[in-house]
Amino acid sequence: MSFHWVDYLVLLAYLVGTVALGLFIGRRVHTGSDFFLGGRRLPWWAIGMSLVATDIGGTDIIGVGGQAYTHGMAVGNFEWIGCVPAMIVAAFIFVPLFWRAGVVTIPEFLERRFNVGVRTALALCWLLFMACNLGIMLYASAKMMHGLFEWNLLLCVMLTAGLVGIYTLAGGLAAVVYTDVIQCVIMIGGCLMVLVIGLVDLGGVDGLLAAVREAESARSAAGAASEELQHTRLVLPVDTESPYPWTGVLFGLGLILGPAYWIGNQAIVQRSLGARTEFEAKASYIWGALLKNLVPFIVAVPGLIALARFPHLSDGDLAFPTLVSHLLPVGLRGLFLAAFLAALMSSVDSYLNSSATVLTNDIYKRFFRPDINDAQMLKVGRVVTVCFMVWGVGFALIVSLIEGRGIYTIFQTLMAFFQGPALAVILAGLLWKRANGVGALTGFLGGVACSVTLFTLNQESVYTALGWPPLFRVSEPFLYFSIWAFLVAAVLLVTISLLTRPEPESKIAGLVYRRREASAS
Amino acid sequence: MTPLHQFGAWLRGLFLAVPMNLAELLFLLVPVLLLWWVLKLPETQVRPVDRPSSRGENLRAWAALALLFQILIYWFL
């Protein structure tokens, strides 16, 4: 894809604006609370936009468009049934309890509800995942930038880490949230521009649908009959060749992974803990849910437009870039590039800040310096942020030396190992007062053990040696690991909790959801 | 075939037998049930309780709007 100097000027304006805003916000950061929770002064509208921006990474824009090109709109389920219901439930049940408890992290809440064992187990799992994901995101995005724009890979990693690091280090969560607002606007604006220009070019929605049907018919005639008429459908049959059978989407994504992400992911929930009031914390999630309805239209539909315009691309991931290079004039390509970088930076900054938050609060403060004051927390938080930034760059380079895609898959699997069990612990902890610490820890560890066992038994070398067929028919069954791990964790948690002593009423007061309880905002 | 494989095959067969229009109905049912729940939430959970609120500060209405979009999306696509 070629760029004019005007495009680079647009990009430069975006980058300078973002970093300047982050540094400006940094002037108001004086304590650990300012750094980790934005001083609990964040408004709902900024948090809601930050939630959306964090969730959409740079690789997602290209990847979702690519999946829509290849498999159709079913990929939109990840933003719709995978997000909106979970965000609404989180807004009214979980976020208020977290906010009212005044905690900085989800593991901290779980220590209050259960015990230090549950807190540490979850903190270590999330820390491991977020730290590694930092490197993975930097590498995956740099690889994509390298492929699209032919920029040097190392330069891309350093540039992204440096820019994100500067404003995250200076302004902490507030800088992350407010820069995410700019990034959300640019990301939505850039993708909306591609959508509108693409639709106009095809003669509107009717023109698009007709062209997609034509492309599908052409594919069908060429022998790809299984793909026919799937591109505009959201619900696909169990035996679909796409990765989105309705069972996996409804049960795995809608009921397990979506809620686990919006209720239990520290990088997501942390910003709502920094809201000015409980009401604003709830409002931020509702606002985010409203915006989420829009996302597949601006990210996935361009994949269909690409299918209509260029039905013979060798790789679905080329759909968005091909569309941009053919449709957008000089200057607007720069805006799309800015949108891509905005999506990338808004995810990296959140994981950087949240990794530092968990390490500082749940490990350093909890086990080494319980008496640390707020000013010292700020210093430690900043040092840890620098360490994670360096780690992220280093890990990205290590990943680049090994096989990138394989590593990415491994870390997706790692997340699937503990997300289901973590959701079981959080749901039981906040909805069932009889759940206790012993049950929660046993359930969590049992659930993780279940997913690790399933993963091991599904390895070709293992099932071949045992003389078994593979356990799962799909090639990457992360979704199914999550479902089974959740179920095992839930059963263990309930059984052990019922067999052991309940937590005292005084300990769990205010930490368990009661429908008629008055709001404390 | 281990019992695990047999159970998996049984489950797969069970879901394959579900008609697609019923599966589509289940997707529609999620936002519909949530909408019903949201509409029944007590007033204290959908408005700020520490100060008088304006008409726009009603989270029930905005959450219902988000879910109505979901219903329309899963109805038409």
Whole-number total of structural domains of chain A: 2
Q: Using a beta-carbon cutoff below 8 angstroms, give the protein chain pair with the largest interface and the number of residues from each chain.
A: A-B, 46 and 39 residues
- Strand residues, percent of chain B: under 5%
Order of helices and strands of chain A: HHHHHHHHHHHHHHHHHHHHHH
Distance between the termini of chain A: 51 Å
List keywords for this structure.
heterodimer, A: 521 residues, mainly alpha, Sodium/glucose cotransporter, globular, B: 77 residues, elongated
Compact overview of the structure:
With 521 residues, chain A is an all-alpha fold. Chain A has helices at 5-26, 32-37, 44-55, 58-71, 84-101, 106-113, 116-149, 153-202, 204-221, 246-264, 266-273, 278-292, 295-299, 301-309, 319-327, 332-368, 374-401, 404-431, 437-457, 460-466, 478-499, 505-508. Chain B has helices spanning 3-16, 20-39, 59-76.
What does this protein structure show overall?
The complex is a heterodimer of chains A (521) and B (77). Chain A is an all-alpha fold and 521 residues long. Chain A has two domains: 5-401, Sodium/glucose cotransporter, CATH 1.20.1730.10; 402-521, no CATH class. Chain A has helices at residues 5-26, 32-37, 44-55, 58-71, 84-101, 106-113, 116-149, 153-202, 204-221, 246-264, 266-273, 278-292, 295-299, 301-309, 319-327, 332-368, 374-401, 404-431, 437-457, 460-466, 478-499, 505-508. In chain A, α3 packs antiparallel against α11 (266-273) and α9 (204-221) crosses α14. By secondary structure, chain B is mainly α. Chain B is elongated, with a radius of gyration of 20 Å. At the A-B interface, α5, α10 and α12 of A face α1, α2 and α3 of B.
